[in-house]
């Protein structure tokens, strides 16, 4: 336990609380255990708070209502598939919006946007052929979908989610390190800043006009508005650019800045060990010296570590192609010549990034230990879990050999994995 250098959880107070959370209790006993808020959960919070902008929030609510309307009835869902086949749509089913994971909403929003013509035609058919209650619901949903605010918000939401979707996938990888995540996040922020201009929104507005069943119009503007932005504009394009596009982009960027700042602070000093970031700056050396004393103890204090760092810096100074990632730096670090550098690079690589991997094991247990198998023992449960998680190894086992071993054993079956 003395070698514990990192701990990562979601944002729940019982785990991440500053006063009596698990992170605080562990840090009191093991000061080296740096706390890292799960980056996948952080990105989820970024999108959840950014989508509280009224028009974006209403757009998501309408999407959810339409999806539920079709999924609650096999007949309505069947009609949707039938019409999709008639007009040769590439998709025939809608994907449910995840209630908690905002980062998973991208696939559902993308599918919905692609199926807007199919949905619109199906709702129109239901207004003529269905019962009065269903026809009324279909009418209200189609009216909401034909609203200019909904169409423009859908196009904007689809665009922004397309950037965060790949970031979310990168955050859930098993071998990703905190340095790369911070780098990816900065890249996404830079991309969003580059997208935030009139020419980019003009392209999105053109897409909205093509998706809309009529002209894109400006909603009624009053002298005092509290439920949505009310910035006056000469045209519909300018109105939606000022009231939806810019605020949404700015909100996402601000949330990314605020919520990922602690992660950048965690690696601020230690990332200067990377060959492409080494420097002879005195402040950087002082910071690295403190980090070395914290993680490596007395054996690597003071001038010994700083001398090693200077050699490390000069070693890569004349090299054209330097290792860009922590894992590459570890592979190119001689532990005999740079022992302290090697240890700190390993610490940087092993700092927790995401809790996605252990949460996947929770999902596996949920599938295995059902109410029908509630009396299953630990040994059998462990064996089934290993076979499920490491299925690539399980298929390599010799089935004939396993059957032969089972044949000579007692009647009670013991898992041999």
From TrEMBL:
Record InterPro entries: HATC_C_dom, IFN-induced_PKR_regulator, RNaseH-like_sf
Highest taxon, organism lineage: Eukaryota
Residue ranges annotated for the HAT C-terminal dimerisation domain, each copy included: 305-393
Any Pfam family the entry gives: Dimer_Tnp_hAT
GO MF terms held by the record: protein dimerization activity
Protein's UniProt name: HAT C-terminal dimerisation domain-containing protein
Organism listed in the record: Acanthoscelides obtectus
